[in-house]
Amino acid sequence: MFEATRLVFYYAVSPVHMGAGSAIGAIDNPIQREVHTQHPIFAGSGIKGALRHHFNRRWSGERGKNGQSLVSRIFGPPTNASDHAGAFSVSDAQLAVLPVRSLKGAFVYATCPLALGRLKRFAELAGVPVDWSVENVQAQQALTASDSAVSSGSVILESFEFSRAEGDCVKIAAWLADNALPAAPSHKFFADKLRTDLIVLSDTDFAHFARHGMAVEPHVRINDESGTADDGGLFYTENLPPESILVGLAQASLERFKKTGEETGPARLDADAILSHIFEGAGSDRPGIANKALQIGGDATTGRGLVIVRPVGEDTGA
């Protein structure tokens, strides 16, 4: 079905709230999580919807064309979806790296064998070379890329102490720094920090931070008449913290048309052209999203949901 694939990183530059739609426990507005790992995710449907909205706004002359616009040709018709399917697909984005508060260096980029194994699998599906292997890490140990977060032979994350594991993750850190972030000068500080401050924890230890290391913000509903807080108006919203890195796949097929209009329609875009339009753009009036900010999820008016979209593979310069 799909004839072209790209590996895509999503680097959060602000807190991100991809809402789960239902509350369990003390948090009124939790973020999306996988059932079996409880790792935060970005649902593919939400990413695709954000991309469609982005291009409807940014591509010149797209609005008002209904099913004849380039956006509709790539993503599918906005109405009468049974006419034909879209030619672009995006997977759920899985958690690859999570920022965790550290005694030294403010925070580290934490990951685990499970997250790295899934990342490597995505990379191989997209045909992206991977020159590192996933090493097992014991509980209460930390595999480090350098000494930057090590204090007296230990790594202190939040209120937990981890002994330093044998070996290193230098190759993994370098690969992530080269691929997960754009090469622009504005990202150099974070790419360099990723090279030195990557830490691999056990799956169990990482799962604790993935479950309890989110930013939880209190919100108050204001009464328009009094200008003060409404009774019962306090609620809590969960956000994925900035500097988090998620990864997924973008795939494309040959463009489809409605059967009755296929003979008189425009020339079909092939799968590579679809991905090129999405990421590299189609001229100055139709810029791509590669290495640029995309707003996803809720609370956009309070600065939430900004992620840098970093595709890796053909035509991306990676």
TrEMBL record:
Q: Which GO terms describe its biological process?
A: defense response to virus
Q: Which NCBIfam families match?
A: cas_RAMP_Cmr4
Species = Thiorhodococcus minor
Q: What gene is behind this protein? A: cmr4
Q: Which domain of life is it from?
A: Bacteria
The record ties this protein, via InterPro entries, to:
CRISPR-assoc_RAMP_Cmr4 (IPR013410), RAMP_III_fam (IPR005537)
Protein's UniProt name: Type III-B CRISPR module RAMP protein Cmr4
Keyword field: Antiviral defense
User: What is one Pfam family matched by this protein?
Assistant: RAMPs
Q: Which residues form the CRISPR type III-associated protein domain?
A: 11-307
Classification lineage: Bacteria, Pseudomonadati, Pseudomonadota, Gammaproteobacteria, Chromatiales
